[in-house]
Amino acid sequence: MKKWILAFLAAMALSGCGYNDFQRLDEQTKSAWSEVLNQYQRRADLVPNIVATVKGEAAFEQETLTKVIEARAKATSIQVTPETLNNPEAFKKFQAAQGDLGSALSRLMVVSEQYPNLKANQGFSDLRVQLEGTENRITVARNRYIQAVQEYNVLARSFPSNLTAMVFSYQPKPAFAVQNEAAISAPPVVDFNKK
What we know:
This protein is mostly helical. It has a domain at 36-141: Up-down Bundle (de novo design (two linked rop proteins)), CATH 1.20.1440. It is built from eight helices and no strands. It starts with a helix and ends in a 10-residue tail after the last helix.
C-alpha cells in the first residue's frame, strides 16, 4: 500500500513540475515568432515595389531611397533561426535591423507627401495602403509574441516550475524592446508660438 501512495505522490509531483507546460509554451513562442518573421518578410517584399514606383518621380530624394534600400538589405541579410530566440545578442541585432527598416520606410512616406505626382499615382497609393496594413500586422504579431514570451518567462521564474527550468536549462526568452525608448519616454514639446 505504501508503494502505491509513494507512486501516486511522485506522479502528482511530476505532473506539477511544469515540464509539459514548458514544451507547450516553447512551441507557442516559436509559432508567434514565426508570425513576426512572416510579417517582416511581407514588409521587405513590398519595399522593391515601393522603391520602383517612387523612382518614377524624377525629383525624388535619392538619399531617402538609398537609405530604404540599404536598410532592407541589412534587415534581410540577418539569418534568423529558432536559436535566435535564445540568443539575446542576435535577437537585439535582428530587432535593430528591423527598426532601421521601419524608420527608413517612415521617412520615405513622409518625404513622398511633398510630391503631388507621386501622391496621385494609384500604384503608389495602393502600395502605401499595403505597407500601412503590414505595419499593423507586424504590431499584432509582435504583441502576440510578447504575450507568449511573458507566459513562458513567468513559468520559468515561478516556483516550483523554476526548478524544472533549472534542471532542463529553460532560460527566460528575450522580449521585444522599443529601439528608441529614451526618445519616446520624453513628453512632446508643444509650442503654440511657432508659425
